[in-house]
Write the structure tokens for this entry.
Amino acid sequence: MYKVSLLTRDGATIAFDAEPSDTLLDAAERASIYLPSSCREGGCGACRVARASGEVELMSYSSAALSEDERMAGDILLCRAQARSDLALHAPFDEAAVGFAPVPERRATLVALEPVASGTLRLQLQYDDDQTFGRAAQFTAGQFIELTLPDGSAKRSYSLANAPNWDGTLELFIRLQPHGAFSDYLRDRAAVGDTLLVRGPQGQFTLDESSASPRWFVVGGTGLAPALSMLRQMAEFADQRACRLIFGVNKIDELFALDALDALKAALPQFVATICVWKPEQEWRGFVGTPVEALAQALSTAPERPDIYVCGPPALIAATEEAGRAAGVPHDRIFSEKFTAA
Amino acid sequence: MFCYQCEQTYRSEEGDGCAGAKGMCGKDATTADLQDILLYVCEGLGQYLQRARQFGAADIEADRFILFAFFTTLTNVNFNAAKFVELIQQASQIRDRAKALYEDAARAAGKTPETLSGPAAFAPASNMAGLSAQASEAAVRKDAAILGEDAVGARALILYGLKGVCAYAHHARVLGEERDAIYTTVEHALDMLAREERDVATLLDEALALGRANFLAMEALDAANTGAFGTPTPTSVRVTPIKGKAILVSGHDLKDLHAILEATKDKGINVYTHGEMLPAHSYPKLKAYPHLAGNYGGAWQDQQKEFAEFPGPIVMTSNCLIEPQPRYRGRIFTAGPVGWAGVRHIADENFAVVAQAAQALPGFTEDAPAETITIGFGRDAVLGVADKVIDAVKSGAIRHFFLVGGCDGAAPGRNYYSDFADEAPKDTVILTLGCGKYRFNKHDFGTIGGLPRLLDMGQCNDAYSALVVATKLAEAFGVGVNELPLSLIVSWFEQKAAAVLLTLLALGVRNVRLGPTLPAFLTPALVAVLVEKFGVQPVGDAKADIAASLARAA
């Protein structure tokens, strides 16, 4: 048994014991400490922390979740690491992101399913009334949920696109993958009235409320979802600060949720949206290029360094971090959520 | 940031006060700095308003703004930096208006208006970065080297006393009770702060003037509360939950509670009071709502655990808010002067969304065993049995009264107050007000001649009620208040309590025991004045203090 001490970004110390046969994530959960995580199999990087001292053994993981450089620098994945000594860890998240109760599991009914763009579906779910949780959809804007198919055969995580609400509504935008288990279900069998198991909310890709800086969101494809959620929350709170969305797709017919963006423009006086199409197949009056190119251009004339929230494939995140760095945005002011095809 | 306005401020050998990235209350340095700037601009506003008054011109909207602005800066009220950027711009515009008012009034009277400097001429930046850079110009201890420590401390006593006066006056105002004399005193005090008065005696006189204004504010609030909701009567209050959907209402604002009761009428939602909202159950027009179900939890410092366990929405109508934890951040609402970045705020007194939240959340799934306490011994209830009380004192059945009033807090030294109540001899009566009572209000104190030994008089502002009772009893006995067999044991935490203390001093009430610690902003010389002139004593050991109080009375 080893002692693990985890220091959160806001300076709280969380301590638990770990058996060498447990992953650190499991060891924490035995102590009723639910650390941020998502796939739990070394694929997403949601549970990455820095190791200040001590030894671990890492089971297999994806280099998209933990690069060789990061590992060399001492980073580990809590879902893949087993303690081999006492450990001191530094987390990139605040204590608020740590759950001290299990992630809720609730049932929800599929109430709408519609194509909104080439290869992209909009799903609307309604939480069933529940003795423990009621019917409210309580989460922090930007968080995700994990859905399990009615037959229990597949699980996938998706960011919520709507703001927290009392009606119990969950809105998702899902990009269909050619041979994804969940995509196959949505394409072939899903029907309004289906019941899905929802595990969530989870994740710490949420607004840094302590910061007063402008907020910029850089998103690719369905990475728009968490940004929409955060922007909608800001609209509900009548947030007066400057905010900007840079939303990129490859082709015009992949664009979606433009009506939601128009609604945000009406609600947020300082909101600017840049829609980027990388390879427009017809005339496109918006930005032609990648969202990172649009970001670099906007940063070059920005009066104030923004906080940057980026969601999309790993390459978009890496490029955004690079563009941010080049423009002098401190690394800890760039918040990211990776998603991988599934 | 530098702030030492509350009891829990950071204390060390090097000097007391919160000066790091975050205060002990959880307020970050940016917000604390912005609050200093807001109050500094309000001082400038006071400079103009005070001068305009001399020509018979007033701007009551500006006075009302000052009340609200000061209220937002009390401990545990508003932590939302963005809100202060907005309030500072508003304050600056209102100050421009007051300047024009003053200058026009002066010219109309054939005088040349003064060109004012200091806060009147301070130009606040328009954004957070610019304002943060100006923080040192508005800091509480700016010019300490010139003014001297005693003057700085006495100025702090005025500034924090002002906060308490403004908070009570704001509470009264939302229910339609205002007093011009409060506004003129507030303006006068702001002008004194603005002109950097450094004569300690003058400053202490001003603090006492604020104490008198605070008596008026508490009287106005008493009139507002009883006018709107009737006179408190002894009432049994359930302190355990009952099955069903639930809303928890905290803070002091009875008007907000009333609006919530209206918004949830006939919806199968139970409304619970928290903390200082407990006395609401004793007001006839509030307890007439059958869904005002009970009181939940203890004093404010336990809220992070208790709110997390409450199965419905929570509304903070005034202080004391502490950082909302993730487990309930999505279902806590702020109202009035309260705020926290990323927490829903209800600015228009429309609580429909709270009712909606209550229905969407699980509520209590079963009845807890019934448990009740009795509250509601305001001035009318106590004076209604004055004959009994006087007879009991004359016969010796009641040897002494202890008024144990004020705030609670997390500090370990606060067990003094529960020790005090528990150790008080059986032939003494304990009167309570404020949230300090939560440490012992569920204990069984028994009765004397049919009168409960523990009589709760209400919220902290019901110190007014206690003073009325003391004055009436003193009249009945033909003695002064200080000759009554009555001792005041005051626990302070924030600035409302500071204002109440100033009221007690201004009214000549002596021998107040104050704790758990003395304010960090009072220098030894200022403490010496309080001790010498007013007999203020720091709390010591509960048993010894009880014995000393009884010996004094004997």
